[in-house]
Design a protein that fits this description.
This protein has about 260 residues and is α/β, with parallel strands linked by helices. The protein has one domain: Ribonuclease Z/Hydroxyacylglutathione hydrolase-like (Metallo-beta-lactamase, Chain A). The protein is built from seven helices and eleven strands. The strands form two sheets. A six-stranded mixed β-sheet has the order 1-2-3-4-5-6. A five-stranded mixed β-sheet has the order 7-8-9-10-11, covered by helices on one side. A hairpin with a 2-residue loop joins strand 1 and strand 2. The protein is globular and about 65 Å long. The termini are far apart.
Length: about 260
């Protein structure tokens, strides 16, 4: 939970732990949150082992070993390197099977993984990328959202792979899954701190995206018809205050927004 203190990862619940990768940046925030979900019978499921970083991968392996657990399954929320770049090395280290980001059997909407133990529910949530997925852990009232919803700020719609229409649908799908739990579900993002109320965060994301749509519509009405790069012109208007290091993300999201509005 964010309370103004630096985010360091660590225990989320008695059976869920985060190992934070030392890869902070404007897009990865404090770094990549690698999740370990501990089931019964000395087994663990790992979500997003992270980039190719020997020290981090060893720390994740050691966190499982510290509980006497072997890694029974590794899940990827999407294909970006800060989530999946180290997966080949991770498999060498652990022998774990992998699913997600084009590996293993494709996910199905509502599929239950590790059904006899953790009962992780797959939620296909394209938008940030075309292959983005989230995972609901009902017994922990916990929602792992990858980069679809972050622990701080908002995410990029990585056009052309990412799609804003898909993204808006995915946010609603997450809220529907939360409502089905019948109580408060905590947010467990891939970057930034956890949050006790995932639904509230996602609702704020929906509001933000609608506000951005309105801002882009307004900006389009002010653009010089001779401007050959409408996306760049919109970024200059709507995202004028963003730091240069995240401008490419703003540009990608604006392109996704223009594509969405053109339909």
């Amino acid at each position: 939970m964010s309370d103004g203190t630096p985010w360091r990862g660590g225990p989320v619940t008695d059976t869920v732990e985060i190992v934070l990768c030392n890869n902070p940046g404007p897009m990865s925030l404090d770094g990549t949150n690698t999740y370990l979900l501990f089931g019964s019978q000395d087994r663990a499921v790992v979500v997003d082992p992270g980039p190719y970083d020997e020290e981090h991968l060893a720390a994740v392996r050691d966190a499982a070993a510290a509980r006497g657990a072997s890694v029974a399954l590794t899940l990827l929320t999407h294909h970006h390197d800060d989530h999946a770049g180290g997966v080949d090395r991770w498999v060498e280290m652990t022998g774990s099977p992998v699913r997600g980001a084009g590996r293993g059997e494709p996910f199905a909407q509502g599929e239950v993984l590790d059904e006899q133990d953790l009962g992780i529910v797959v939620l296909l949530t394209p938008g940030h990328t075309s292959d983005s997925v989230s995972f609901l852990v009902p017994q922990e009232n916990l929602l792992l959202t990858g980069d679809t919803v972050l622990g701080r700020g908002t995410t990029v719609v990585a056009f052309p792979d990412g799609d804003l229409g898909d993204y808006l649908d995915s946010l609603e799908r997450l809220r529907t899954a939360i409502a089905g739990q019948g109580g408060t579900v905590a947010l467990a993002p891939a970057h930034g701190p956890t949050h006790p109320d995932a639904d509230a965060v996602i609702a704020s994301y929906q509001q933000h995206r609608q506000e951005r749509l309105d801002q882009v519509r307004a900006a389009l009405g002010q653009i010089d018809p001779q401007d050959t790069d409408a996306a760049d012109a919109v970024v200059n208007t709507v995202y004028a205050d963003v730091p240069g290091q995240v401008r490419p993300a703003a540009y990608a999201t604006v392109r996704a927004t223009l594509d969405y509005l053109s339909r």
